[in-house]
Amino acid sequence: MITSLEYPSSITILASDKNNKYLAAGFADGTIKILDLSNLSNPKELATINLNNQILALSFSTDSDIPYLASGSSNGKINIWDISDITKPELHTTFYDPNNSILQLWFHPTDPNMLISISSSTIMQMSNTINIWDLTTGKVVTTFTPTTGYGSGGYQGASLNPQKAYIAIRLWGGIVIWDYSKNKVIKTIPCPSQGDYIRVLAFGGPKGEFLASYNRPKVSRAPLSNSECGKYVYLNYLRSKGIVPKHKAPPYNIII
């Protein structure tokens, strides 16, 4: 640990820009803070954005010529902030996904004018949708509703694989891997046990050929070609390496 920053509201999401120079933090009270990480021992707070609803998703644009920060809230709003002057973010545009909470955002890896969102119905997360938005028109150009044998609800985590143009999303009953460039389901990995609370998914490997999942109380890692829920290493190993943070009561910390 280099430094720790304390805040009165719980931290719901963290995102860094592609150069890891800036860190954006979203909070349960609707606040977004942008930090300069040039000096890791003394991060500088550059800007604060105050909104009315819990911040659940943040993403920096990957194209330096289009300096945007996207934020997603529990009320279904996606705000695109112009951060040309990162000390004074200006609202560029707002999209609205009615009756849904915005759970995840990514700027499209190859088209900076596209934004990918995952949203969930506000009633018990009974339905989840992946949308691809055209930032120039504010319209949805592709919609996909992932589903397993248990339906399309129960969102527990997702990961984007830019090498293969895949998104993996964990729902009740399994993990769905979707090719967003072709709007095609690549694979559904059954995980029938509702006790497997998978909260984190991450693609890895030189070619993005592995999918790792953190679930309580285990972690699985397997090739995409034969991945099944059940190939585990124990959580205690990860905790010994400092990978899995322990729960902490307020005040809430950003550990750098």
What report would you give on this structure?
Helix content is 2%, strand content 53%. It has 256 residues and is mainly beta. The chain folds into two domains: 145 residues, YVTN repeat-like/Quinoprotein amine dehydrogenase (Methylamine Dehydrogenase, Chain H); 100 residues, N-terminal domain of TfIIb (Single Sheet), CATH 2.20.25. The longest helix is centred in the C-terminal third of the chain and has 6 residues. About 13% of the residues have low confidence.
Short description:
This protein is mostly beta strands and 256 residues long.
Write the layout of secondary structure elements.
Blueprint lengths: L3 E4 L3 E6 L5 E6 L3 E6 L7 E7 L4 E6 L7 E6 L3 E6 L7 E7 L3 E8 L6 E8 L6 E7 L4 E6 L12 E5 L4 E6 L2 E6 L4 E7 L6 E8 L5 E7 L1 E6 L8 E3 H6 L11 E4 L1
Antiparallel strand pairs: 1-22, 2-3, 3-4, 4-5, 6-7, 7-8, 8-9, 10-11, 11-12, 12-13, 14-15, 15-16, 16-17, 18-19, 19-20, 20-21
Q: What are the key terms here?
A:
256 residues; mainly beta; N-terminal domain of TfIIb; four-stranded antiparallel β-sheet; 2% helix
Low-pLDDT runs: 217-249
Supply the CATH superfamily name of the largest domain.
Answer: YVTN repeat-like/Quinoprotein amine dehydrogenase
Radius of gyration: 18 Å
Main beta-sheet strand count, sense and barrel state: 4 strands, antiparallel
What level of helicity do the residues show? Answer: under 10%
By CATH, the topology of the largest domain is: Methylamine Dehydrogenase, Chain H
How would you classify the helix and strand content by structural class?
A: mainly beta
Measured between the Cα atoms of the first and last residue, the distance is 6 Å
Please list the strands of the largest sheet in the order they lie side by side. 2-3-4-5
How many domains? 2
Q: What would the principal axes of the Cα set say about the shape?
A: globular
| CATH top level label of the largest domain | Mainly Beta
Count of alpha and pi helical runs: 1
CATH architecture descriptor text of the largest domain: 7 Propeller
Round the mean pLDDT to the nearest integer and report it: 80
- The portion of residues forming beta strands comes to over 45%
Q: What is the strand tally?
A: 22
Q: Order of SSEs, N→C?
A: EEEEEEEEEEEEEEEEEEEEEHE
